[in-house]
Amino acid sequence: MGSDIEQLLRCQHGAVSRTQLRAAGLNPNTIDTWVRRGRLQRMLPAVYTVGPASLATRAHGAVLWQLTGVVSHLAAARLWRMAVDEHCSMTPRARPCSITSARR
Description:
Elements: H1 3-11, E1 15-17, H2 18-23, H3 28-36, E2 41-44, E3 47-49, H4 55-65, H5 73-79
Antiparallel strand pairs: 1-3, 2-3
């Protein structure tokens, strides 16, 4: 992979969109060949990863797929290491909480 693509992958936790690959100079046939050969793994439509998908990889991939979306709720809390789960909870029955507020 070229240095532009490698830089994208580093900055985006291993996720990259087809649009970004095309902008980096890859033609559609090359992208499809890389997918067939396992060099890229399809994560979502037109979004790929090059290795095991961590939570950060999956979150970045979702944002690349849904460009107007943001990571929110429990996924965001886990990314910020704020979520409490059964492995580190002082209260094992803690439930996730979602808050939505009106824009002022």
